[in-house]
Design a protein that fits this description.
Layout (H helix, E strand, L loop, with lengths): L1 E5 L3 H12 L3 E5 L3 H8 L10 H10 L3 E4 L2 H5 L4 E4 L14 H13 L4 E5 L7 H18 L3 H5 L2 E5 L9 H6 L3 E5 L3 H11 L8 E5 L1 H32 L3 H9 L20 H14 L5 H25 L7 E5 L14 H11 L3 E5 L4 H7 L8 E3 L12 E4 L11 H7 L4 E4 L15 E4 L11
Parallel strand pairs: 1-2, 1-4, 2-3, 4-5, 5-6, 7-8, 9-10, 9-12, 10-11, 12-13, 13-14
The structure holds nicotinamide-adenine-dinucleotide (NAD).
The site of nicotinamide-adenine-dinucleotide has 26 residues, from helix 1 and helix 5.
């Protein structure tokens, strides 16, 4: 099939690349000229394992190309995916300006029959808005004498994306399920055919109406965010009553009705999706005069959780952190991505600096992104190193914020030697089973109080 994917960010690039891998002819479109120019030169604007090689092979095979020219991408295309951002507006609602701008442009530039698919995460009812927007543009063209435009048929479907950054290729190639929201059997048939190679292993292809598909994406993300906030809240009580959150997790996760996934406590969820999607869902409920006590609580627990590690630092070192340096391992909101959007590190770094501390940070991939987010922080208050151990020199403590593999089993003798004091705050509970206090470390994880190290 010939496909246009509009918006070449995380979702658009992965979607386009994976469809091309399955033998489709895909044109990825973006309005950002610099991004498209980089893609022409094989320079991939995001870090996502495996993506660069697949883009190269797709481009070499002639199945994958990049352009800023939407009209050219739509020429001959049977399907156009909309994969632009839907960021959060100040009131918490999803900002649809990019989606609707693309819809408008599709209406202005389409040159044949087309199935338009919303892949962006959009509030329920957006497909109708996209349909109306395209219709309006086609009517305008028809009124201006474009007789061909008057005859174009189009349909709008919803195909929300569930990929996880860091495992995006695997998620797309072998999805747990594909959700297709369609209002016509013919569109359902075409999209089912497109996705057939991706669901050969008994993974579900779920056909449903458009509104249910739109709702499914928000419900899925809200459910996952709820599990995280639930575990974070339980971890706080564990800390007070002397229970071990790790045992509790194993104890409840083995119940098949609960399951083990997404039950890890930590220093809060972040990223481009959970925070904005929970907020957008709350906003949708408000629009229908429905209270959203559970979703509001999920967000509030998460907001507080991003402060938990800082509170532990203050408990250990006192209110003023003037003159202290803290080593940070991990800046990205999760491993295997350079995405800093809503990352807990954004809160933690600023809180520590507000109290007078300086930060020395290491992240395998996110440093360049972090520099953009921390652009306003005064000189000397934050620095970045390219070797994880260099972050430790003379620091009062190590804070682990992202569970990258490179932090899994570090050389603790070296950590001890380099730190001014052997203190570790583990925001991802990576070292809970290592009995670090017996090796002389003061060790503090999520859901347990500081355990003092045995010193010689
Ligand atoms: N990132 C994820 O893990 C993820 C997962 C599932 C769903 N989603 C959803 O997918 C959507 C896209 O997310 P993303 O992370 O890929 O966003 P992104 O910000 O990485 O990429 C969006 C791209 O769209 C481009 N764009 C904006 N307006 C355009 C226009 N008029 N024409 C062409 N290109 C335009 C931007 O330049 C940008 O490159 C969002 O709704 C998001 O919620 C994201």
């Amino acid at each position: 099939m010939q496909i246009a994917v509009i918006g070449s960010g995380y979702v658009g690039l992965v979607t386009g690349t994976c469809f091309a891998q399955m033998g489709n002819r895909v044109t990825c479109v973006d309005s950002d000229e610099a991004k498209i120019r980089r893609l022409w030169h094989g320079d991939i604007p995001i870090y996502e394992p495996g993506l660069a090689a697949m883009i190269r092979s797709g481009s070499d095979a002639g199945d994958l190309s990049f352009t800023t020219d939407l009209a050219a991408a739509l020429r001959g295309a049977e399907i156009a995916f909309i994969a632009v951002g839907t960021p959060m507006k100040e009131d918490g609602s999803a900002d649809l300006q990019y989606v609707l701008a693309v819809a408008e442009e599709i209406g202005q530039k389409m040159s044949g029959d087309l199935i338009v698919v919303d892949k962006s995460t959009v509030p329920v009812g957006t497909a109708d808005k996209v349909r109306e927007t395209i219709r309006r543009q086609l009517d305008r063209r028809a009124a201006a004498g474009d007789t061909a435009a008057a005859a174009y048929r189009f349909d709008v479907a919803s195909n929300p994306e569930f990929l996880k950054e860091g495992a995006a290729i695997a998620d797309f190639m072998r999805p747990d399920r594909v959700v297709l929201g369609v209002n016509s059997p013919e569109t359902g048939r075409v999209l089912s055919h497109l996705y057939e190679p991706f669901v050969r292993r008994d993974n579900a292809l779920l056909l449903m109406d458009v509104r249910s598909a739109e709702m499914t994406k928000y419900a899925a993300n809200a459910m996952l965010a709820t599990r995280i906030s639930f575990m974070n809240e339980i971890s706080r009580l564990c800390e007070k009553v002397g229970a071990d959150i790790g045992h509790v997790r194993a104890g409840i996760g083995s119940d098949r009705r609960i399951g083990t996934a997404f039950l890890f406590p930590g220093c809060g969820y972040g990223g481009s999706c959970f925070p904005k999607d929970v907020q957008a869902l709350i906003h949708m409920m408000l629009e229908y005069d429905l209270p959203a006590p559970l979703l509001n609580a999920v967000e509030e627990v998460n907001r507080v959780q991003k402060e938990v590690l800082v509170e532990k630092v203050i408990e250990r070192f006192g209110d003023s952190l003037v003159g202290r340096v803290f080593a940070l391992w991990g800046l990205a909101f999760k491993p295997n991505t350079d995405d800093m959007r809503q990352a807990p590190s954004l809160v933690i770094v600023r809180r520590l600096i507000e109290r007078g501390a300086a930060i020395r940070a290491f992240d395998p991939e996110a440093v360049e992104q972090a520099k953009i987010y921390f652009d306003d922080i005064p000189e000397g208050k934050i620095s970045y190193v390219s070797n994880k151990y260099d972050a430790l020199n003379g620091a009062s403590a190590l804070l682990l914020l992202t569970e990258w593999n490179v932090f899994r089993s570090p050389d603790f003798d070296e950590i001890k030697e380099r730190l001014r004091e052997p203190v570790i705050f583990d925001g991802r509970n990576q070292y809970v089973n290592l009995d670090l206090p017996s090796r002389g470390f003061d060790y503090c994880a999520i859901g347990s109080p500081m355990r003092r190290g045995m010193r010689d």
